Amino acid sequence: MLRARIAKGDVCFGTIDSWLAWRLSGGAAHVTDATNASRTLAFDIEKLDWDDGLLGTFGLDRDVMPEVGPSGAIHGTTVASGALPGGLPIAALVGDQQAALFGQACFEPGMTKATYGTGCFILMATGGKRFDSKRGLITTLAATAGELRPRYALEGSIFVAGAALQWCSDNLGLVGGAEDGERLAASVEDAAGVVFVPAFAGLGSPYWGPDARGAIYGLSGAVTSAHVVRAAIDSMAFQAQDVLEVMREETGLQIAEIRVDGGAAANDRLMQLQADLSGAAISRAASVESTALGAAFLAGLATGFWRDEAEIAALRSEAARFGPSPRVDVARGEHSRWRQAVAGLLQTELPPL
Q: Is the dihedral of CA 150, 154, 159, 162 positive or negative?
């Protein structure tokens, strides 16, 4: 039935942003941007166009697909509907993490952002050069404004970050929430040898172990709830560090600074551990809502509110900064134990750091 409707021309396909633009414009705009198009598995990220072979695999043709443009552009205008006035420009369509990368003003190759939320998503800008990872990272398109042009990023997707602390609260009743968890973890010097691998839904980048399941190692009679919670928080930094190391290795780019956002980025001890492990400066943005900010920046560029990316970069405000501490060697030893635990779960040997 659907194929018949496609043939008649009364069905079109796209991503959620395509549907939103369609509805906002009263059906006048069937559009998407390159970052969302790149997630469909039917878009050529070098030619920046739909791939006819891939479309054919899904039983589609380009006539039903949205027009692809840059993230920041006038994609259409609204029609009046209820409280929504007509004639407003629809000036930005952009994927979640690419918006956060733009919101953190990571425009130059090597600039890196990490969002610590329920999961953790790390993107490194690589400019006009595309890197195809052989060790579990995703090559994606980064956002552009004004014109559609090749701009790439490497992405590492970590399935469980802040959700590990939520699990300690909801499933084990160890803490009452994120702030309570941070206070409890701060009450102990370290995790007392406890290693927490929160593979509740398998492991994402850079391991890609879908069958792995969570585990807590190193329990002894001296371990308390504070140590388990501390290990859960530490696991966020350990997972992120494994992604960062692969990014450095595969691109040859240095990471001098990591720009962080998301709810868990408010945890000072977590950010300090990330600085110790990475050897990079950790810059916590004043606004933790980098995705919304990135979309606003793109729309502002498209409408002429801001002139260029240099003006956007000057707007970024830093709330806190962390550098490596004297605890670097201890942190790296803890990370080594983490990697041994992950290797055991995956039943394989991880590449050396």
A: negative
Q: Alpha-carbon distance 31 to 113, whole Å?
A: 28
Are 164 and 203 a contacting pair, CB within 8 Å? no
CA distance 126 to 108: 7
Helix (H), strand (E) at residue 90? strand 89-92
Instruction: Name the 3-class secondary structure at 56.
Output: helix
pTM: 0.93
Q: Following DSSP, what letter does each residue of 169-216 receive, concatenated?
A: HHTT---SSHHHHHHHHHTSSS-TT-EEE--BTBB-TTT-BTT---EE
Location of structure tokens 């090597």: 110
DSSP string, 155-167: EEEES-SHHHHHH
d(CA 91, CA 274): 36
**Residue carrying structure tokens 């090559």:** 139
Please give the domain boundaries of the chain with CATH numbers for all domains: 2-91 (3.30.420.40), 94-353 (3.30.420.40)
Considering only CA atoms, which of 170, 187, 266 is closest in space to residue 226?
Answer: 187
Helices (H), the chain: 2-8, 16-24, 34-37, 52-57, 96-103, 162-170, 178-186, 225-251, 268-278, 290-302, 309-315, 328-346
Q: What is the pLDDT of residues 309-332, one digit of tens each?
A: 999 999 999 999 999 999 999 999
Residues 6+ apart with CB under 8 A from 4: none
Please write the tens of the pLDDT for every residue from 177-231: 778 888 999 999 999 999 999 999 999 999 999 999 999 999 999 999 999 999 9
